[in-house]
């Protein structure tokens, strides 16, 4: 029996023996995890900086957001209410809202904000009464996980460096796949490969829309799957939006950090040469004005400084431009009635109106 199988058997046994169903156990595990996160904050920030080209401030924000999320999971556990639900049956009452854990939860973390992605998923598993296993890789953040999880019951977690074997899959009750690579029956899956779009209607507060779009595109170099990477703007407010985006763009001192590894550059250059698009803006934020909606640059996932903009003539035209595809997030900047229409017609997993929450970009 391999070491990995032995570790997964251990977390499987811990799930069966019922220890993770204890509310006090869940609370104690989350308290220990929260304390360890605070202790390792400096090391975690260094690991994040090593893995991804982000600023020191962004690394610190990721650490702080992760620690806060664990605290929120702890606070979500109401001991008195959980106790009442547990003893309802003993008192001759129905307990239709009682919940129990799945068992072993396998977590396949995303690359983006990996520290947050791993720890928050683990905290969620603990708070729901599960044991968990995490598929790790060669990230600096992953090498810190054995130290982080020493604060937990050693039989309630496992770190494996490859996908589970067929034998191990039988011990997994639920897969949390943040990569979008698996399609399983018992799987909570996110698909970061899907596009995220923003529609700016003529009824929008254009200054507010520009501020939200630029902030989302600059944070983490626009690498968040939830940052809009395609903008559709009504022709009547296009110039106002473009001017506002350029004015709000970061200064040129961030040019190297933002544009250094932009894979879209050649595609944009080709589109310019063929007359399919033109670039407007500064070195820190280049708005790609699309002249031909069939251009390959429209389909390319934007990162770094480039942000494609498609001009539309109406709400219906925006819907037609986006039809036939599913989007991860659609942000609609418009008056409420127009935002409602867009949300009903554009196929996205999440729809938000007139704002882009910074928490969603983590």
TrEMBL record:
Cleaved signal peptide residues: none
InterPro entries assigned to the protein according to its UniProt record, in alphabetical order: Ald_DH/histidinol_DH (IPR016161), Ald_DH_N (IPR016162)
Molecular-function GO term, any one: oxidoreductase activity
PANTHER family associated with the record: ALDEHYDE DEHYDROGENASE B-RELATED
Protein name: Aldehyde dehydrogenase domain-containing protein
Naturally occurring in which organism (per UniProt): Aspergillus calidoustus
Source species taxonomy: Eukaryota, Fungi, Dikarya, Ascomycota, Pezizomycotina
């Amino acid at each position: 029996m391999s070491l990995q199988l032995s570790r997964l058997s251990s977390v499987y046994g811990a799930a069966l023996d019922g220890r993770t169903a204890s509310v006090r156990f869940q609370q104690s595990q989350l308290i220990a995890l929260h304390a360890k996160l605070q202790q390792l904050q400096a090391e975690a920030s260094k690991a994040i900086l090593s893995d991804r080209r982000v600023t020191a401030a962004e690394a610190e924000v990721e650490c702080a957001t992760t620690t806060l999320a664990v605290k929120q999971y702890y606070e979500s556990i109401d001991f008195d209410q959980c106790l009442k639900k547990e003893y309802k049956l003993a008192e001759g009452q129905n307990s239709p809202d009682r919940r129990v854990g799945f068992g072993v939860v396998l977590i396949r973390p995303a690359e983006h904000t990996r520290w947050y992605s791993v720890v928050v998923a683990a905290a969620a598993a603990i708070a729901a009464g599960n044991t968990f296993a995490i598929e790790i890789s060669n990230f600096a953040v992953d090498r810190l996980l054995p130290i982080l999880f020493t604060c937990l019951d050693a039989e309630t977690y496992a770190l494996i460096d490859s996908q589970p074997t067929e034998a191990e899959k039988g011990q997994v009750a639920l897969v949390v796949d943040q990569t979008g690579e698996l399609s399983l029956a018992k799987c909570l899956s996110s698909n970061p490969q899907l596009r995220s779009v923003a529609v700016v209607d003529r009824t929008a507060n254009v200054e507010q829309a520009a501020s939200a779009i630029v902030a989302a595109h600059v944070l983490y170099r626009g690498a968040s799957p939830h940052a809009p990477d395609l903008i559709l703007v009504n022709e009547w407010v296009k110039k106002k939006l473009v001017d506002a985006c350029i004015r709000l763009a970061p200064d040129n001192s961030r040019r190297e950090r933002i544009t250094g590894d932009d894979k879209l550059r050649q595609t944009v250059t080709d589109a310019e040469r063929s007359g399919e698009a033109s670039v407007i803006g500064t070195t820190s934020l280049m708005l790609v004005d699309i002249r031909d909606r069939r251009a390959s640059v429209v389909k390319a996932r934007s990162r770094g400084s480039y942000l494609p903009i498609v001009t539309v003539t109406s709400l219906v035209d925006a819907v037609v431009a986006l039809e036939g595809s599913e989007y991860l997030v659609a942000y609609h900047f418009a008056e409420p009635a127009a935002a409602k229409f867009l949300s009903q017609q554009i196929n996205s997993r999440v729809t938000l109106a007139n704002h882009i929450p910074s928490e969603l970009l983590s």
